[in-house]
Design brief:
Layout: E1 5-6, E2 9-10, E3 13-20, E4 23-28, E5 34-36, E6 41-44, H1 62-68, E7 96-100, E8 107-110, H2 111-114, E9 119-124, E10 127-134, E11 139-144, E12 146-147, E13 150-151, E14 154-157, E15 169-172, E16 178-180, E17 186-188, E18 201-205, H3 206-212, E19 217-219
Parallel strand pairs: 8-19
Antiparallel strand pairs: 1-2, 3-4, 4-5, 5-6, 7-8, 7-18, 9-10, 10-11, 12-13, 14-15, 15-16, 16-17
Length: 224
């Protein structure tokens, strides 16, 4: 997901109808520049070399979203069948990962790794991060783990100690505070009410990611 405002101008996009490295190309109606949807970069035209700003977003089952945001609005679409019909990420967990960072610091955290280590403390471009994974809904997010001048280190917990609430949790080692793993919100303890800053990140097919970021870091279980 990207912001459409670039250098003070709001751009309107359409589908060019062609592929580049098996990824579709967009065009903006203002300059007819060609944009790659997976990186948000203009490849050709007046705006070549420009990049759209990434907006933090998540891919998750609708039931998970609805539970978290019961009053959410929904853009209705037409149900399709065939090859573009049903998609179940859980059956393809080994194919996907969470891409974090840009340029030489871009890193792919494989879902197969995060499924075993659902709370992963790491560092990217000297910035401490925690990468979190929901093993039921199969989606991942990343947060900055430096809060108010303090570096926090996290470990996974299964759920809130309440039989009616099964949201995945984590706990920080420094204060023992309890955090919602997938939102970065502190529920209880010394840091109650605090919020970790979410880092822009995108779910990618591993083989497609490799085609675009040949020099990137591909983090898998055997490499830890």
């Amino acid at each position: 997901m990207y912001g459409r405002t670039l250098d003070g101008q709001v751009l309107n996009f359409g589908h060019e109808g062609v592929l580049y490295r098996n990824s579709f190309v967009m065009y903006d109606k203002e300059t007819n520049s060609k944009w790659l949807h997976v990186t948000g970069e203009a490849l050709k035209g007046e705006l070549k070399g420009k990049k759209l700003g990434i907006i933090p977003s998540q891919i998750m089952p609708y039931r998970t979203w609805k539970k978290r945001h019961p009053d959410t609005g929904v853009l209705l679409g037409e149900k399709v069948s065939g090859m573009m019909g049903t998609f179940t990420l859980k059956d393809r967990i080994s194919s996907f990962g969470l891409s974090v960072g840009e340029g030489r610091n871009v890193t792919l955290f494989r879902f197969s790794l995060l499924n075993r280590l659902p709370v992963l403390d790491t560092t990217l471009a000297d910035a401490p991060l925690v990468v979190c994974f929901d093993q039921t809904a199969i989606y991942a997010v990343a947060f900055r783990s430096h809060l108010s001048g303090r570096q926090l280190h996290f470990s996974a917990l299964s759920s809130v100690p309440d039989a009616e609430d099964t949201r995945p949790l984590m706990r920080d080692a420094e204060t023992g505070s309890l955090w919602l793993r997938m939102t970065g919100e502190c529920l209880a303890g010394e840091l109650k009410g605090s919020q970790l800053e979410q880092v822009p990140a995108t779910a990618w097919l591993g083989n497609r990611w490799m085609a675009f970021f040949e020099g990137g870091r591909d983090v898998q279980l055997e490499k830890l």
